Amino acid sequence: xAELRIRVCLKSVPDPRRPVESTIDPATGVVRRRADEIGIPxxxxxxxxxxxxxxxxxxxxxxxEVTVLSMDTRAASEVLRETLALGADRAVLVCDQSLAxxxxxxxxxxxxxxxxxxxxxxxxxxxxxxxxxxxxxxxPQLAELLNIAHISFVSQLRFASPQRVRARSEWEDRFSVLxxxxxxxxxxxxxxxxxxxxxxxxxxxxREKPILHLALGQLxxxxxxxxxxxxxxxxxxxxxxxxxxxxxxxxGDGGEPACRLIGILGESAVL
Amino acid sequence: MNDRExxxxxxxxxxxxxxxxxxxxxxxxxxRELAGRLETHVAAVLLGNKIKGLAEELQDHGADRLYLxxxxxxxxxxxxxxxxxxxxxxxQYKPEILLLGATRVGLDLAPCLAARLETxxxxxxxxxxxDETGRLVQYVPAFGHMCVAKxxxxxxxxxxxxxAPGAFPVRIGGGGKAETIRVSLDLEAQPTRVTMVxxxxxxxxxxxxxxSAQIVIAGGAGIGSLEGWRLLEEFADALGGAVGATRPxxxxxxxxxDQMIGHSGxxxxxxxxxxxxxxxxxxxxxxMRRAQMAVAINSDPDAPIFREVDYGIVGDYRExxxxxIRGLHSRL
Amino acid sequence: MDLRFTxxxxxxxxxxxxxxESAVSPHVQEMEDDGKTPMDLxxxxxxxxxMGVCVPREFGGTELGNLARTIMLEEIGRVSAASAFxxxxxxxxxxxxxTAGNDAQKKEYLPTLAKxxxxxxxxxxxxxxGSDPASLRMEARRDGNxxxxxxxxxxxxxxxxxxxxxxxxxxxEGSKGLSAFLVDKGMKGFRAGRHEHEFGLQGCNTGELxxxxxxxxxxxxxxxEGQGLRIAFGSIGRLGRTGTAATALGILNACxxxxxxxxxxxxxxxxxxxxxxxxQWHISDIWLDLNIARQMCYRASWLIDQGExxxxxxxxxxxxxxxxxxxxxxxxxxVYGGYGYLKEYAVQRxxxxxxxxxxxxxxxxxxxxxxxxxxxx
Lengths: 271, 332, 377
Fold this sequence. Notes:
The structure holds three protein chains of three kinds. Chain A is of the alpha/beta class. Chain A is about 25% helix and about 30% strand. Chain B has helices at about 20-40, 55-60, 80-95, 105-115, 225-240, 245-250, 280-285, 315-330, and strands spanning about 10, 15, 20, 40-50, 65-70, 95-100, 120-125, 125-130, 135-140, 145-150, 160-165, 180, 195-200, 215-220, 240-245, 270-275, 295-300, 310-315. In chain B, the strands form four sheets. A seven-stranded parallel beta sheet of chain B has the order 7-11-6-1-4-5-12, sandwiched between helices. In chain B, helix 3 (about 80-95) packs across helix 4 (about 105-115) and helix 5 (about 225-240) packs parallel to helix 8. Chain B is elongated and about 65 Å long. The termini of chain B are far apart. Chain C is an alpha+beta fold. Chain C folds into three domains: about 5-115, Butyryl-Coa Dehydrogenase, subunit A, domain 1 (Orthogonal Bundle); about 120-225, Beta Barrel (Butyryl-CoA Dehydrogenase, subunit A, domain 2); about 230-375, Up-down Bundle (Butyryl-CoA Dehydrogenase, subunit A, domain 3). Chain C has helices spanning about 5-25, 30-35, 40-50, 65-80, 80-100, 105-115, 230-265, 275-305, 310-335, 345-355, 365-375; strands spanning about 120-125, 140-145, 145-155, 165-170, 180-185, 190-195, 205-215, 220, 265-270, 270. In chain C, strands 1-4-5-8 form a four-stranded mixed beta sheet. A four-stranded antiparallel beta sheet of chain C has the order 2-3-7-6, with no helix packed on it. In chain C, strands 9-10 form a two-stranded antiparallel ribbon. Chain C is globular. The chains are: A alpha/beta, B alpha/beta, C alpha+beta. The interface of B and C includes residues 224, 299, 314 and 318 of B.
C-alpha cells in the first residue's frame, strides 16, 4: 500500500473539566477570553483527540505520515507539541490576526487553503464537533471546499482496499456503512477509539519534529475571505438567560445537607 | 407583498421509515410565525421514498407549499444525494430561510449546503426571530455560563439554521391546502463518490427513557472516573431516575451519546433534575431549563450551576451520594 | 536566570498529571486497603516510559533528566505519594548501573529496566543502620570466580517486586571495604523475606532481603571492589534525595489544594471558614512551604542536570520538602478539624505518608550533617 498522507484538523479548547465564564465582546461578537480563562490549561478537543488517535492507528497499520493542522493563536503551540509527542509527524499552526472572528465557513476556507498548500493528501480526519463552539460544521464544509467526499459520525474506520475506505456512521437510532475512494474526509464520533496517553519517549521524539507556522500570505487567500470579514454569519449580540431558580445552598455539617435534601424532596412529593 | 429576490421560509421535513421527525413539525410551527412577520409563505421540503402520504400532516402543521422529492435512492439518508437534491431546490426556488432540525442528518446536511451556496449557517438554535430589516435572528447557546449569542447572516441567502429539537412547541393549524410541487429527479445518472453498502437500526438504549423521565440524574466532568459514574448510576437507581450526561462525560466514554443532555443533545422536562459534578455550562443547562425542581451537587462552591438550580450541596459527590442513597433506602 | 519551565517541561507535567489522575488515582483506595503494589499500575507506568527517564538514549531510555523526573514525581505524588515513591526507587535501582556498570552490564540490564519490563531497587540498609556504613555487616566472600553473599537488608522499598537489586556488601574493612553487586530474583540463596508494614505510603512495598550463601558470578560486581559506598551513595544523593523531595512536593500540592477547597466550602459562623484569619494564616503557611520547597527541588534537580556537584542542595531540598510536607499535612488536618481524622478524606493520608518520607534517603539529621559539611568546607 502506498504511504498514506493523513491530515488531522484539530482544535485546542479550555479543559472541559474546568468551568469558565467566557464572554463574547458585544462590539465585535468575537469571543473575548476573560483573565481567569487564561489560567485554564488548553487541551486537545476530545473528539479531535480521537481523530488524531485514529490517524495514528491508520499510520501504524498501513504506513504513512500524519500532519496535524490547527487554526489558532500562538498559545496553541503547546497543544501542537503534544500532538507531536502523541505521534504526529509534523504540526502546522495557521495563525494570523486576520483570521480572528471566523465563523465555520471562513474557518473551513482557511483550513482548506492550508491543506492545499501542503500538497497532495489522502485522508483528512477531524472530530465531528468540538467542545468549544460545538457546531460540528467545519468538517463537512471543509470537505465541500476541498471538493472531496466525506463521511460523518464515524465510529469505525477500515480499508476495503488500499485506496478505498469503509466506515460505519452512527445516526441517532441507525447506522450506515459507507465506502469511498481516497481522497476522503472523515469526521469521527465518540466511541471510535480511546486516545493513547503521551509517553516520555513521545515527548523526547517530539523535539525533532517541526511545527510550521502559516500566515495569511502563504494561504493564497485574501483578507476578505477569512476571519470576521470572510464570515457570512456574525455574532451581533450576547445576552444571559436570566435564572428563575431559588439558588439555595443547603448548609450544615457532615450529613446534614444530604438529610435536608431528602426532606425537601419528600415534602415536594417528587419522591 | 414584498419584492425580495429570495422568498419563503422553508423547513426540511426529516423523515425515517415512513414517519416524520418531530423536529420538522416543531419547525413548521415556528416557520408560520416567522413567515407571518415576513409576509411570505411556509414550505416543507420532503425528500425520501414513498413519502407523499406525509404531505397531509405537513399541511396540517402549517405548510403552504410542499416540495416533494420522491425516489427510491432517497429512501435512506445519503449525504451527497440529499445535499444535491436540496441544493437544486434551493437554487431553483430561492427561499430566504431554510430551517433544519439539529439532528445528525441536519448537522451533516446543512453545512454541506451552506458551503456549496457560500451562505451562513448557525447550529443548535434555541430561538429564532426576525429583525427590523427582515433578516433571521438566530439565538445559539454560547460557551460559558448561561450565555446566548445572537447571530445574523446579513448578506447571503438563503439564511440557514439548524434548530435544537424541543426548542419550539408543535402547533397544529395555519396553512390551508398546501400546493405540492413534485421535483423531477434523475438520480441514477448522478454518480456519488460515497456508496452505501449497508444500513440498519440500532437498538435504543436506556437513553430513550430520558426525554420522558420524571426524574433525571445527570453527571458531568466532575465525576472524574468510570468508578465514580457507577456510583452515580447507583444513586439514579435509588431515586428511580434516568441517567443523563454532559458532553465531557460522553467524550470520556462513561455515558452513551444518546444520554447527552443539552445543546446538541436531549432536552428533558422532569419533576426532578439532579446535576452531579456539572459546572453549569450553558451547553448543558439549556437541556434542563424546563425541569420543575433542580438540584446540584458540586465540590466547587463557585460553580455557576448553583445559580441555576433550586437547591445546591457543596461537597464531594463521593461522600454525598452514599449518604443520599442510604437516606433514600431508609425511607422506603 | 530564566525560571520558566520550557514547553517540553510543561508537556511532561501535563502528561504526568493526566496519567496521575486517570491511571494512578483509581488505585489509591485499594492501595490503602490492602497495602499491595498494584502491578497493573506498574505496567501502565512502564508503558508511559516512566522508568527510563534517567536512562541514556542508547540503552532505550529517554534521558530527559532529573528536573523532568522531579516534575513527573511531583505530579504523581500529588495523587499518590506511595506510587511516586515506589517509582522513584525503581529509578534508584537503575542509576548505579548507569553510573558504574561496564558495557556488558549496561547492555544486559538497562534496556529491559528502561522499558519497565524488569524492575529494580537498591539495598543498603541493615538492622545496624542505614546512615552508618561502617557498621554494615553483609558480606561478599570471594570464592574462585564467584562471590558468596550472606546477610540481611531491611527497609528495602520494592523488595518483593524488584527483579534486580543493587546490593551493598562487605568485601573488606571499613567504609572503603564495601562493594556493589547486581543480584537477580531467582538466584539461589536470595529471597525477599518479611514484609514490613508501615503506617504510611500504603501500596509501596517495603521488606527484608535475605542472602544465605547466595553465589553470584564475579561479573555481578558493579565497578571495582571498595567502590560500593561511593556508587550507592552517589545515586542516593542525587536521585534518592530529589525523588523523595519530589514526592513530598506532591503531597504539599495536595495539602494546599484540599485545604483551600475545604476552607471555601466549609461554613461556620455563617460564612466560609476561608474568611477567618486563623485559617488564612494556615493556608498561607502551606502556600509558603510549597513554594519554597518547589524552588529548592527544582534548583537541586537543575544543578544535577548541569552535572554540577550539589550534595548540599539535594540534601536541603529533601530536608525542607519532607519536613514541610509533614508540617503542612498537620495544618491541613487542623483546618479540616474532626473531618481530618476520617479515612474518607485524603488529608490523613498526607499526614501519614509525609512522615514516612522523613527517614528515607537519609534522615533529616543526616541531611543537616551533609549541609553543614558543605557550609563549613
